[in-house]
Known about the structure:
Blueprint: H1 6-18, H2 30-35, H3 73-95, H4 99-102, H5 106-111, H6 118-139, H7 151-161, H8 164-177, E1 182-188, E2 194-200, E3 211-217, H9 224-227, H10 231-238, H11 244-255
Antiparallel strand pairs: 1-2, 1-3
Helix pairs in contact: 3-6, 7-8, 8-10
Amino acid sequence: MTRPDTATRRTAKTAALGRRDLMLAGAAGAGLLAAGAGFLAPRPVFAQVAGAGPVTLPPLPYAASALEPHIDAQTMEIHHGKHHQAYVTNLNKALEEHSQLQSLALPELLHRLPQLPETVRTAVRNNGGGHANHTMFWSIMGPNAGGQPTGTLADAITRDLGGLDAFKKAFNAAGTKQFGSGWVFVTADQAGKLSIVAKPNQDTPLMEGKAVLMGNDVWEHAYYLKYQNQRAAYLEAWWNVVNWKAVDARYAAIRRGELI
Length: 260
């Protein structure tokens, strides 16, 4: 019997993994399951599209030019098609020889960083974090957006963050003060309590087991073509593209225990 060549075996492997969504739960490796038996069960999050590899690049839910004039089309094309794609590609490379890790939901994979093999830990931290952060980022923006949150989300912002104006001021300040590259996030627990936190590089509150409600990217590639070194101006303009309906949907999912 003729043994399949390397290319054929690789194609078969890719096909087998192609529709496996890293962000939907699967069976974990026995060692990781034993180490984290008490951890929250993997939960569905905003889904990705099918594609090559266990991790795929989600398409933008709007045209690259849809967020103009606040975020320009060229920035969106480079940010999504180059930067985010690189995180996806490099995460797949890191997981290529670790099938037991491929079956973990991405939030759980990130939370278990200290337990991962040292050879892939940094790559998963940087690229898994980048993939999670950007997938969230695209989903909470949109054209003809901005305005104000409503309902229970608005009530939570008033209760925990002092109202919308105070929230924006504190959020922008945290993003402006973040040294170098990083993100500013709003986290929410299952009781609905909100908090603002900044993280360096592609770190994410998911690494601490905390759900991310929303966040803004303060890496220079997110704003430099239009705003140059004026990060504060970018942070202020960004509120015009926040899709509060999408943020509210995330808030409801977190409170239902469906999103972490």
